[in-house]
Amino acid sequence: MTPEALVSFLHDNIPLSRAMDVSVTSASAAQVVLEAPLEPNINVHGTMFGGSVATVGLLAAWSVMHLRLEDEGIKCQLVIHRTETEYLLPVSGCVTASAVLDTSGWDHFRDMFTRRGKARLTVTAELLHNGQVAARLTGEFVAIAER
Amino acid sequence: MTPEALVSFLHDNIPLSRAMDVSVTSASAAQVVLEAPLEPNINVHGTMFGGSVATVGLLAAWSVMHLRLEDEGIKCQLVIHRTETEYLLPVSGCVTASAVLDTSGWDHFRDMFTRRGKARLTVTAELLHNGQVAARLTGEFVAIAER
């Protein structure tokens, strides 16, 4: 999937991503990098709202998982089970969310999915502002086989 | 602050809350109840996007903390430090976010703030759909005295 195809997919299927003006810098089954500007995501302090920071991280984590499943031809429903976000620094401009798939955990995930029709995988997204890690989101996803 | 005043405050200062069409059911220094409809918050499965669910929970938790600080005349910058969200059930319609202030922790929080000019408090928001708890957000906030 190209960055253009991923941004269309997100904007068409998750309208919040359009409201946040999320764009896609790179998209592959190994890594997804998203970006969000400050203005539609601002808070009362003039910095980026924590809800927006976590959401762009979740979109990046979900996207890389989605692209990897698509790449391997795994048909499933992918749902989020748990997220944790640490806010480290205020974001006073554009934020970049980078999610890299944990390849060491992938084989176990695929084995579990094949055997049980259900498996979990944790994906982490780093939120960067001006080259510094401003937040970190960890998302635990569950893939459930389509019947 | 009336529900009308809180919804105006949120929509004017956090544009994402307007994009999500968040409304305020009740607002006091003890409890805040917010609501969000499905349509602007939908995901690829036709249920509510996890980013929206967590965000309406965060807005409720932040709001009750903000109203209590205002009620006690505490001038500070209130920032989010960490959030954790558990997703328990899919949300196939409107979601309600209810955040109740932990009064047992408040006295300690206020003492710490008075002594050190900085204090933390954890606020939990329950996300309800059709009377069932569909998700739970726990947010750890930090209040920092204004200089």
Q: Label the CATH architecture of chain A.
A: Roll
What is the 3D shape of chain A?
A: globular
Low-confidence stretches of chain A: none
Order of helices and strands of chain A: HHEEHEEHEE
Q: Return Rg of chain A in Å.
A: 15 Å
Largest sheet of chain A: 6 strands, antiparallel
Walk me through this protein's architecture.
Two copies of one chain form a homodimer. With 147 residues, chain A is α+β, with helices and mostly antiparallel strands. The first copy, chain A, has a single domain, classed as Hotdog Thioesterase (Thiol Ester Dehydrase, Chain A), CATH 3.10.129. Chain A has four helices and six strands, in the order ααββαββαββ. In chain A, strands 1-2-4-5-6-3 form a six-stranded antiparallel β-sheet. In chain A, a hairpin with a 2-residue loop joins strand 5 and strand 6. The longest helix of chain A is centred in the middle third of the chain and has 22 residues. Chain A is globular. At the A-B interface, helix 2, helix 3 and strand 3 of A face helix 2, helix 3 and strand 3 of B.
